[in-house]
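Researcher: Here's a chain I'd like modeled. Treat it as a single chain, no partners, no ligands.
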Amino acid sequence: MANSLNFIDLFAGAGGLSEGFIRQGFNPIAHIEMDMAASYTLKTRAAFHYLKSNNREVEYINYLKGEINRTNLYHLIPEELILGVVNKSIGEENNSEIYKKIDYNLDNQNVDLIVGGPPCQAYSLVGRARSEDNMKSDPRNYLYVQYANYLQRYQPKMFVFENVLGLKSAGKGVYLKNMERLFNKKGYKIHVFTVNAENFGVLQKRRRLIIIGWKDDFTPVLPDFDNYKSEIGGMVGNIFNDLPILQSGSGIDKYVKYSNTTNKYLFESNIRNGIDILTQHISRPHSNQDKEIYKIAVEKWNEGADRLNYNDLPEVLKTHKNRTSFTDRFKVVAENISASHTVVAHIAKDGHHYIHPDIKQNRSISVREAARLQSFPDNFYFEGVKEGANRTAAFKQIGNAVPPSMANVIASELKQNF
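Model: Modeled as a single isolated chain. Structure tokens:
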């Protein structure tokens, strides 16, 4: 039954939400994503799933080893899987073209589910704080209207809409109320859950809204996601202790050997999942000044579990004029706690908020370490526009993603409704 459940992923990003549903047997008809690098990531992941399901995983491993290039990899899989990744922005100017591509892959089948979450910057508290008009003029405030258009066209039985907590308060709650009215008008009832990723087997505090919608002609079975608690868990240090030591600016994009055996958390969370090849364990370079600050931040944590306040730094190390906000801009990803602070897309700009806990390595976390905090499996490869390592593109995709472990739970619990 599960293999016949078709879904569309809107605003797909790197595919973290899709990953959970694919694990539960749902079939992705199309991924719609405007970012070109993320679209390549989606194509590469489609190649992985196809090759694995056809007992040809070794061909994907050859790609991770660098023995074949990206073009060769894509030639190994059916064309419709590549065409199913639509690199277009969702909106009136592109919808007709997107519909055609979805319909081609759908081939007269039904869409059972739509998943996805529009870009969240317009609803986030940080985004509004940095905006002159509190994001009121940001067109991303209204992308839920486009989401509703896809519901109307494809009539899925259910949908999953993920976004930031700020959606509740954006516009004093008007956007969320308008969403509910619009979804009701399209024939769907909704329930809004407030979830924390750490309750779903992710070693990260990441609070989000999950809106579950269903056609108003049936009564769904909805679990209590607000109070869900996974049996999978560990300490943040579990993501570090099998990885090779890196210094600032070092690392290898493809085919690195693990430095240690796996551990219970990595096994149960599906992060270490059978392929003994580590990729994208790459650290960004840092200035000597930043490394001095990193040492101070790690020492403060190690000595008394104390976070560094920017104003406590020696004057010679203070270069920011802003001394009143973001005073925690330098923060250690502490290994002796059960969940790190939230990984966000800003990690693509600098690593100051994500300092590795090992003072001897004296760097911010690598691409692979950030992916692990988001619960992405190690065989998940993040692409750039051009083939080869692109640290910035990978970090951005990881920071914007839905953790696959959380998506897996949601998919597992909702599957009983189909």
